[in-house]
Amino acid sequence: MLRTGIAMVVALAASGGPAVGEVPFVFSGLPVTSPKLQISVDPAGYSDSMLDLRTKFSGREYLSGEWAGAIYYEGGHVPAMSRWFPDRFVFPDSYTYDPETEMPNFSGSGTFSGYGPNADGLDAYGSSISNDDFEIGLRYEFRDFGADQSGRLSLGLEPQGLGGAGSFLPSQRYVFQQTYTFKNISGMTLNNVTFYQFLHTLHGDRGVYDERDYGGGWPAYRYGITLQGDSHAFDLRDYSTKLVTDTVAMKFSMPPSGYELGAYGMKNAGDHQFGKPATGTHLSVESNSLNGSDFFDPDESDPDQDAWVSGAVSFNLGSFADQEEKSLDVLLAVKSSHVDAYPPIKLKVHHAGMINGLYTIQFEETTMNPLVGFVLRKSSLLDMPVKDWEFLPVGYQLDVPMPNWRTFEFAVDTESEPSAFFSVVPRLSIGF
Length: 432
Hints:
By secondary structure, the chain is mainly β. Helices cover about 0% and strands about 50% of the residues.
């Protein structure tokens, strides 16, 4: 006997699949966790995964790539050029070096050190990478800015060049801190050393550079780039749909030598899944020349202007004598707000069983939410979360056999699998 279970499980992910012949990169990293936010980093300090851990939005993603560092310097054993710390970017997938040479810019052990709790009682970790000239140590941890909103990190929202008092939002309580320590191991002096930090978020529609002093917690960290964007998400408490505004900012305690807000590829030239975008701020990093733009808000209504949004800052660290060390840290903070968009989803199952030799599930979503679609999952057991059930690559028919009905039809082998459970899983259609 086959039985059907209807479960409210949301799977929020960027839409689209791989092109023919291409296999997507898979990002994996060490999860660094706070009570409300988690980021996973690889040993080069790169991340493609920063997740909301709040109960109502658990699992929402803030990054789509790229949280990445790079360095430019002259002298040493390799030619002068900007070198990314990670060997590849994920979504869109691209290598940061010529893969035919099999020579990434930096190498490391691929392992992490655990440092135990920091001053805020949150676990800290470390890793290191190196090439023939630099050894770069990295430390990762969350910092607790406290329950009082007035003590939170201030996230600037106005372009610096606009003048005036500006405006800001207080960050979430927990803020990620990443610290870089650069050591010259070349045996000679390295000159014109410039460090870059690059940021591209999943829902960033606009961005600014702002260095006004808004007070709040750690006011020295006034220099930074803020990306903002809007998207829809399920509130997992009742499966209503919210319009969410995400604010993601990287903040520094020293003035940068350069900054740039700009594109990370044009939306009419690529699917943002495979290949390095042909236009954007990442290319300015690679050319060691940020253009000083403090604002970017592409016109989404104009296909020739619409672009994915990114930002980068640079710091001229000067010259390094042999064995000299210098350190710099960056804070990565978020703030999310939301308003109601659609009421809680209501599913009504009209039929679940065999019809004309096919297992058939017919159901309605009675609130008529235009953003909701569905996928199907299957399990032979009920003692595991639905999110871990097997995904069935089965599409459904819309308005079959009645208006607003949806129908899944698929073959089953009742002899080899006499009992199974199916879950119709709602998911939101999110643009990217």
